[in-house]
Structure formats: C-alpha cells, structure tokens
C-alpha cells in the first residue's frame, strides 16, 4: 500500500513531513520566516481513501503558545467549505488526531482558512458595493496591497482593522461579516450608524504572512502589533501606511480584530495603563463590552487578559497607541481557536459563520452607543 501524500504547497499552507510509518504520520509546523513563532498549520492529504490515519504534530510543545493546545480540536474539511472539529489529543508536547478518510482528499487546519485568494474576492465584492470607497493605502514588504475601504458620512471616525497576526484567520471572517452588514441598509442600526460615523476598514493588515502560512509575523519576521510606536518602511510598511491614514482622519473608535489560542471565549482587551488614562475614558470601553454581552450570547466579560497596571501600557501595540494618540475608545477583540464555551457548538466550535455574526452584533452595539463614544 502506498503512503498518503501530504501537501502544504499552496496559499496559506504550512506543514513539514517528518516521517510516515504505515498509518502513522509525524509532522512539524514550519516557523514563520526569520522568527521563532509557529502554531498555524494548513495542509491536505491525498490517496488515503478508506484508511484510518493518525497525525502527530511532534513539535507542538515548542510552538509559540503550547498552553493553547489542551482542549483544542483540529478543523477538518473534505470540501474546504465546512470545517468540522475532529477529536484531538495533546500529551508530551505532541498534538495528535486520527481520521478515517471516506473520500480521496481531506484538508486539516488550525482554524478555517481565509486565504489570499479569498481576500482578493472579498475586496472585489466590497469595491462594487454602493457607498463603499476603496483605496490601496500602501504595499507590504512582498509588494501586496494593503486594501482599505471607507463607508458612511458621519463625523465620528470608526476604524476596524484585522489580521495583524495572519494565522488568526477568524479575523478576516469577522471582517467579511462586518462588510456585509454595513452594506445591508435594513440591518438594525446600520443606517443610523453610517449617518453619524465614517467607518474605515482594513480587512487584512498582513497579506504577506497570510500567503506564507505564518502565525504571527510579516515577510521580515516582524510582529506588526509591536510596531505602532515607530513603524518603518524597512520593517513594517503595513502599519506605517495605515497609521498615516489614521493620522489624517483621526480615530474616535478602533477595533483591532484578533484570535486567542488559549481562552475558550470571545472577549475584549482595552487600554488600561496608558499614560493619559482617565476613569471616564475607560468607562466608555467597559460600557461597550457590557452592552455587547447583553446583545449576544457569543460574548462575555468574565474571561480575558490581566489588565495593565497604571503607566505600564505597551504603546507599541495598536490598541494602546490609538487610545493614547487620539483619545480613542480603542479595543482588541479576541476570538477563540477553540470555542466560545458559554455558548458552545459541539460540531463546529467557534466558526467562520459565528465570527461573521459576532461582527454584526458588534456593529449593532456600536450603533446603539455611537453618540457616547
């Protein structure tokens, strides 16, 4: 019997075969270029029909966030449309699952992918929407476009930007949901929001990392969410061009969309610890989270990151930089690679469709309190 064929030589792919011993396949995730980060994987398996194969990612314990593996379940698809969770084990630094193939091909990924080709299709659709204006703000180190959209005519300046960390693919699913909702004039509160606010969207801040199959960095191995204090053309042109446009428009509200490896819930991180912190400024952020949790069962406020102590905020991170620079109500949304445990889905876990619906809920909550922000 011939060995199954493992392939990751495609848009966003990442895996390396270590050894194939019968039905046991040892794999390694490849590090981001010029970086120690790795956790994202995406590959396909061919010529495995009818076989029960055991896949073992043997370097999982050395990944960027090994504490994220316990409780995690790999995503599997036979059509690249539906990505279901597969039973997954983690022990002794090895991530392992068994799959019985009932067809000629199967794909596995850390989360449902949102590839460069999918991004280009989203950009083409959005550019044709009534009221949406498109610009190319700049280019990445590999020469890829930093796509930007503007919609609305109000004085409040709302910025939505995603995928500084390219392996967090749920972020661009969220952006797809945001764009679709902003284009739906019948959606609750959207017409009123666009009358009061101008919404700026950057669906993918890191197109190079997306194409290369990186977890966290751009083509130079740079974590873009540590560049907002002093972006440069040599290291972080992606941040440089977006921040320049923010300086031109101003920022009243900012949502930086991310994914979290370990915490099985959706949550917001704020800007506690910035030098200009005031209780009134912080209260508006807290109130937004409270209202969002009341609006959807796919959000909660109990789990999240530890708050920074006064004066210790890292201004190289976008949420802190924008809150300090503009006085913005600035926030980082974190979505899970696992599931939103307060409202779980045993088949799909946290999923593309739920990411899109969360964007709807967040925009509706934003519309509800835009005057206060």
Task: Summarize the structure in words.
The chain is an alpha+beta fold and 373 residues long. It has two domains: 5-109, Immunoglobulin-like, CATH 2.60.40.3120; 116-369, Zn peptidases (Aminopeptidase). The chain has helices at residues 116-127, 170-182, 190-196, 207-212, 237-249, 279-295, 318-326, 352-369; strands spanning 5-7, 16-21, 24-28, 42-46, 52-57, 74-77, 84-86, 89-91, 94-100, 105-109, 133-139, 145-151, 156-162, 197-202, 253-260, 267-269, 329-336. The strands form three sheets. A seven-stranded mixed sheet has the order 11-12-14-13-15-17-16, with helices on both faces. The longest helix has 18 residues, at 352-369. The model has no long low-confidence stretch (mean pLDDT 97). The active site is at 334 (proton donor/acceptor).
Keywords, separated by commas or semicolons:
single chain, 373 residues, alpha+beta, Immunoglobulin-like, Aminopeptidase, 2 domains, seven-stranded mixed beta sheet, five-stranded antiparallel beta sheet, 8 helices, 17 strands, globular, Murein tripeptide amidase MpaA, Cytosolic_carboxypeptidase, zinc ion binding, Pepdidase_M14_N
């Amino acid at each position: 019997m011939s060995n199954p064929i493992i392939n990751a030589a495609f848009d966003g792919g990442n895996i390396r075969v270590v050894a194939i011993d019968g039905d046991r396949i040892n794999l390694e995730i490849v590090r981001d270029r010029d970086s120690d980060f790795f956790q994202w994987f995406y590959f396909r398996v061919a010529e495995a029909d009818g076989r029960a194969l055991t896949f073992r990612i043997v370097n999982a314990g050395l990944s960027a966030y090994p504490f994220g593996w316990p409780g995690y379940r790999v995503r599997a698809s036979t059509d690249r449309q539906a990505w279901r969770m597969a039973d997954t084990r983690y022990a002794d630094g090895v991530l392992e699952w068994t799959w019985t193939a009932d067809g000629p091909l199967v794909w596995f990924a850390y989360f449902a992918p949102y590839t460069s080709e999918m991004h280009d299709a989203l950009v083409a659709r959005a550019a044709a929407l009534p009221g949406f204006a498109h610009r190319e703000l700049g280019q990445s180190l590999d020469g890829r476009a930093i796509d930007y959209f503007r919609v609305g005519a109000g004085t409040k300046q709302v910025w939505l930007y995603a995928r500084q960390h390219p392996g967090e693919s749920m972020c661009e699913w969220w952006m797809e949901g945001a764009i679709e909702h902003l284009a739906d004039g019948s959606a609750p509160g959207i017409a009123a929001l666009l009358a009061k606010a101008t919404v700026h969207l950057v669906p993918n801040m890191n197109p190079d990392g997306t194409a290369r199959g990186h977890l966290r960095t751009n083509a130079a191995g740079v974590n873009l969410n540590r560049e907002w204090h002093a972006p440069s053309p040599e290291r972080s042109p992606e941040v440089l061009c977006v921040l320049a446009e923010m300086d031109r428009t101003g920022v009243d509200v900012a949502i930086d969309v991310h994914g979290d490896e370990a915490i099985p819930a959706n949550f917001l991180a704020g800007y506690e610890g910035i030098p200009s912190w005031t209780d009134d400024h912080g209260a508006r952020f807290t109130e937004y989270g409270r209202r969002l949790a009341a609006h959807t069962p796919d959000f909660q406020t109990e789990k999240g990151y530890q708050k920074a102590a006064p004066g210790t905020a890292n201004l190289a991170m976008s949420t802190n930089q924008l809150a300090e620079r503009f006085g913005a109500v600035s926030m980082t949304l974190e979505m899970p690679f696992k599931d939103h445990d307060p409202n779980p889905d045993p088949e799909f876990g946290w999923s593309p469709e739920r990411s899109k619906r969360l964007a709807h809920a967040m925009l509706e909550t934003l519309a509800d309190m835009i005057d206060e922000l």
